[in-house]
């Protein structure tokens, strides 16, 4: 969109007020917009104006005329969604953007205190199950020992383990996170399997319809970075469990384990896994990880973990 002069911006504000008035009394109309409304105003300006209309009023604006209906379904909801999450989005059905604007937690990490930035005592996130050796600790990540991978998201802290088993877990209630039963059971986001470790490796992606009338393309992704302590071998283990309404209703379990030794010591590794075919009824996800220093050295020289993540994401290959 071209830069607008102050007078043009003021005009946009005044027009938006008129838009709100039109929406309140709008009925289905197949005629073009009134000349007094659309005269000399390019589509990109209308899209910008309409993108600032509140979520409840905007659906009614579709009935003002065909042009507005086309712009709202084609560009306006996408623009509002991109503004809401602060990043560009791939092409998708307008209903996907609407759900994002309506509070669907897309592109957000559903795990709290993912790298220990809030310490170990903050309530409402991690539950420590085993605190062996000197126990869990949190340390800073400096420039010298951060991952060199471009996908590193800049965490400044990491959890660190000790010379005996250290285990912690966190459970995400998907309803509490803002996902409705309709999204979980009817739309059921597509989840694809993918593992990234040392080098990039991708499984073929497929496009499939979740509903004969509605397409909703996204994936639930689990991610964490980990490494050994300074010059010492270590062990890392991750377990993801999908549950129904109760934490006794186990739907699926994903296990991953890695012994870090020899030339792999002091290197960061990234684990990523995308889940699909989990069926109806998913309500909770448990993230469980474990680590320790295999050299049994007193102190906190065991496995380090950072960037633990459970997220809901749209696929970037949907057109």
Automatic annotation (TrEMBL):
Signal peptide boundaries: none
Pfam families, alphabetized: F-box-like, FBA
A Gene Ontology term for the protein's cellular component: cytoplasm
PROSITE patterns per record: FBA (PS51114), FBOX (PS50181)
InterPro entries: F-box-assoc_dom, F-box-like_dom_sf, F-box_dom, F-box_only, Galactose-bd-like_sf
Superkingdom, natural source: Eukaryota
Domain F-box, first and last residues per copy: 35-80
Transmembrane segments: none
Protein name, entry field: F-box domain-containing protein
Residue ranges of domain FBA in the record: 97-314
């Amino acid at each position: 969109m071209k830069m607008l002069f102050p007078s043009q911006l003021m005009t946009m504000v005044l027009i938006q007020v008129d838009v709100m008035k039109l929406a309140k009394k709008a009925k289905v109309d197949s005629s073009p917009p009134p000349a007094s409304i659309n005269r000399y105003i390019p589509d990109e300006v209308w899209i910008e104006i309409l993108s600032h209309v509140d979520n409840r009023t905007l659906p009614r604006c579709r009935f003002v005329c065909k042009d507005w209906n086309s712009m709202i379904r084609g560009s306006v909801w996408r623009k509002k969604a991109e503004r809401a999450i602060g990043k560009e989005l791939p092409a998708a059905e307008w209903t996907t953007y609407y759900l994002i604007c309506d509070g669907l937690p897309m592109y957000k990490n559903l795990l709290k205190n993912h790298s220990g930035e809030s310490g170990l005592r903050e309530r409402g996130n991690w539950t420590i199950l085993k605190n062996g050796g000197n126990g869990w600790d949190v340390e800073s990540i400096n420039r010298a020992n951060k991952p060199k991978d471009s996908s590193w998201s800049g965490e400044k802290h990491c959890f660190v383990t000790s010379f005996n088993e250290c285990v912690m877990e966190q459970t995400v209630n998907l309803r509490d996170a803002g996902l409705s039963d309709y999204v979980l059971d009817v739309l059921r986001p597509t989840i694809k399997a993918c593992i990234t470790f040392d080098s990039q490796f991708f499984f073929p992606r497929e496009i499939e319809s979740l509903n004969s009338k509605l397409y909703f393309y996204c994936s639930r992704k689990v991610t964490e970075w980990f490494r050994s302590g300074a010059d010492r071998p270590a062990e890392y283990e991750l377990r993801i469990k999908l549950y129904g309404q109760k934490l006794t209703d186990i739907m699926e379990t994903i296990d991953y384990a890695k012994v870090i030794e020899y030339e792999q010591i002091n290197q960061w590794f990234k684990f990523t896994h995308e889940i699909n075919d989990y069926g109806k009824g998913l309500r909770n996800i448990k993230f469980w990880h474990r680590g320790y220093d295999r050299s049994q050295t007193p102190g906190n020289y065991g496995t380090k973990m950072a960037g633990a993540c459970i997220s809901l994401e749209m696929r970037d290959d949907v057109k």
